[in-house]
Amino acid sequence: MHLLRTHSCGELRKEHAGCEVSLAGWVNRRRDHGGLIFIDLRDREGIVQTVFNPEISPSGLKTAEEMRNEYVVRVTGEVALRPAGTENSKIPTGDIEVIVKDTEILNTSNTPPFYINEEVEVDENLRLKYRYLDLRRPRMKENMLLRHRVTKFMRDFLDARGFIEVETPILLKSTPEGARDYLVPSRVHPGEFYALPQSPQQLKQLLMVAGFEKYYQIARCFRDEDTRADRQPEHTQLDIEMSFVTQDDILNLMEELYTSLVETIKPELHLVKPFPLLTYTEAIERYGSDKPDLRYDLEIADLTDIAARTDFAILRTAIDNGGKVKGITAPGCGEYSRSQLEELNKLVLSAGAGGLLTVSLGAKGGGLDGLTLNEVKSVAAKFLTLEQVKEIAGRCRADKGDLLLVVAGEPDKIYPALDILRREMARRLKLADPGVIAFGFVVDFPLLARNEETGRWEPANNPFTEPRDEDIPLLDSAPEKVFGKNYDIVCNGLELASGSIRIHDAELQRKIFRLLGYNDKEIDSLFGHMLEAFDYGAPPHGGIAPGIDRTVMLLAGEETIREVIAFPKTQSAMDLTFEAPSPVTEEQLAELHIRLQEEE
RNA sequence: GGCCCCGUAGUGUAGCGGUCUAACAUGCCACCCUGUCACGGUGGAGAUCGGGGGUUCAAAUCCCCCCGGGGUCGCCA
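Predict the joint structure of the above. Result:
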């Protein structure tokens, strides 16, 4: 099978000493001592030192003189223990070397545009243009191997529990979902388009109607929206759907999956078990976010009642207008400078809140009891009694030397600001331990949200989510009070997975669609296939879909999912290796019945 | 679309009004070198400082516009 090689470079160890081997790989580095040349030969499994000695092979040395970095070469020789004192403990193959008897350059290489054999930050554009070289670098290679192990683990895990993998179409139908669709024009049907799936949501539900009971798929999902560090035009999710399950069944399955995944693949990461479970309302009230980073506390304290008793007009006005007063503690930041405080204020303003009230609790030491009003630095200071300051500090679990960050106003405005403050302070104070991976469940989301612009109800998660049984009567009277049977997995401040128990009753589903503003004709043309399917014995079912890219990113300790995707796109949705997207020929357009419009 | 950050030899950085004829490291090329492993030594090539305009006696450096990239808000059911 392997005509060019008998072993991989990285697998050779002491036990191979004396073996005659053939290796093939890339020149990682050449060390030319004149009469003696060392070539570090690299393949996917690792690096091994090969030695070219004129006393063994004069022609081999001559060939080695021609070799340069990234040349592809084959060597044949004998594995030998390195001379005493020349072992290299830094590499796994460092006890041995290969004494080359015969060699051959299989292919030359241009000098790479960036270092492949060193870990240096390189401009990402350049890396993406030459992604095939970037992927040779150890970090990227490890990320791709990790990704493989993760998906392999997931497949094995689900297979062992009776799930079957089913492939679903990439060319399908545009339906009014949350995101913009990627459209593919039809040649056969002039003027009609396929849409790439934003997720296999409807398909997996139809597979439940089909009776597969437990389905999964490593599924590619497409959304034509702006990218982020954790968002790409196409991403991969572990798409899961099960029949005859409750929310707890799915959450338990996920906890087991992620716990065993981390313990098997990244045992060095500290995992918090069991996963904490928060309701959506709790998550917002405690962390200001429905995807809180649970690696640190910095919880939000409600100060509304205390603030209402003060003489500080700004806070009292906010409360009189139906607002709340909330704060978090920045530990040890009591001596922040005016400009540092102003930076935080700008963050709060950018988040849409009215402004930030800071209360500095002096210098460290002495405890709250020793605090004097003189030490308290705040524009609110003269409106507060010492007792009130202490009460506020106590509520925020703050100590002397800390900084209180207080925001007042409508909940919609202040929670995003508190969320930003919380994450910013955690970043500054390095509160998020990179050795910790903190999962959590968030449950009981509102089913619907009012779109401010259109005034229409929109699904907070997706239109197929089943309302909580007890809330169904509210659908007619008070839709905003209806909670859904949906749940997220959060991890280190990311939304890692989202799922729900689905509606399996055609009438209830039709009711939801009507509530979302569709008339019956629209419902039938857009979702008729789903409603009809539900009338043929749809089992109760539910599912979830964890993001694979985000999972691997977290396990790899990377900051963006681009680092764990082989060929990712830039922020402007381009593939720099292929320079896609690109224009097509007039003939191609004509075949698709498409005429381009001049941009103004 | 808004806000913020970045753009200097192949790569990574320094320089932030004049001493810049742009520095350093590495890579590259040539020569020397038989135990290195980020080998070492000597020499050399390599940048109109993202593009355009302006201010100034003088611009990599200050200002404006544009381009490219990234982060974030909007957006992402």
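The first strand of chain A starts at residue 20 and ends at 32.
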